Amino acid sequence: MSAPVPKSPVPESEEAAKARRRRSVAIALALGAFVILVFVVTLVRMGSHLPVQPY
Amino acid sequence: MTDTAALPTQGSAPQAAAPARWQDYVALLKPRVMSLVVFTALTGLVCARVPMNPVLAGVAVLCIAVGAGASASLNMWYDADIDAQMRRTRHRPVPSGRVQGADALALGIVLSLFSVGMMALAINLLAAGLLAFTIVFYAVVYTMWLKRSTPQNIVIGGLAGALPPVIGWAAASGSAPPNAWLLCAIIFLWTPPHFWALSLYTTSDYAKVGVPMMPVVRGAASTRRQILAYSVIFVAAALAPVLTGLGGAAYLAVSALGGLGFIALAVRLCFSRAGDAADERADGLYDVKPAAKHARNLFAFSILYLTALFAALLVERLLGPAVLRP
User: The domain at B21-176 falls in which architecture?
Assistant: First the structure.
């Protein structure tokens, strides 16, 4: 039994490659925003529970 | 569930198209609907009158907005088969083939988990629970069940669109008192006249895809009468915040004057021929035949009136009760 011949990949058009790159950038920005959001929320939540230091 | 719901094309892109842009994914979140959700949620949050860290208030509103977008994406995934056949929806990202159905589903699930999880961690469990209920109610109960099985679809399903002020109130105060549910009731009762007015001049589209909207099942005349009945109940509910102390003088003026206008438009619509067979020859969604203009007028005014009601509450709360309370 012979092994199936793999199909040659369809070359990606320039327009499709550009759109894919832009989507990747958007996902990266969204992930970055998520990290910053979690960081800020953590600071705010922790800040509200810190004991007041008498000086 | 109807046969239409089981079509193999459901959630899939029916045709090849240009590669997806990030704007197509934004369109999946129905930004215009999201803006109304954000506005009503913000009103609920402010009306709670509980001091809240502005960052956390922003996060709460963001979670509600993202949750609304998530349920919209799940809706577009599931309804791709019927969206492709209706003039109003055939250009949406999934039916037009720009976004794969599986991508819309994945986006909806990821954003649902994000919004509910962030609300639970950053705000409180009541707000997170209400948000989760809203997403499931819209995406599963309304989209997958009610929409294709009963003419009461938008009446019951309207609860999903009515809950954001309660979520906002719960986010600020950790509770959901009667006044929060009064805001919910106002949007809930606003939904039938709003959507049935729209469906009166898009009847042929809904009939074509087998969605049992009220004009398709009961006929235009019955729908016009029900719009009038719901309008009277809605306007009465819209006046109620004055009695409970939630609304002040400005709110009373807006709700009373706008309410009179709303009922007047509903009466005109009731005695018009909007939605009758003669109107269904319209070529496009906005190519409204003269008789259907009464339906379009009520549809447009309903958006203005609801916005004005919540804006009045918001302004009164932000300016302080001493300024505007009668």
Answer: Orthogonal Bundle (1.10)
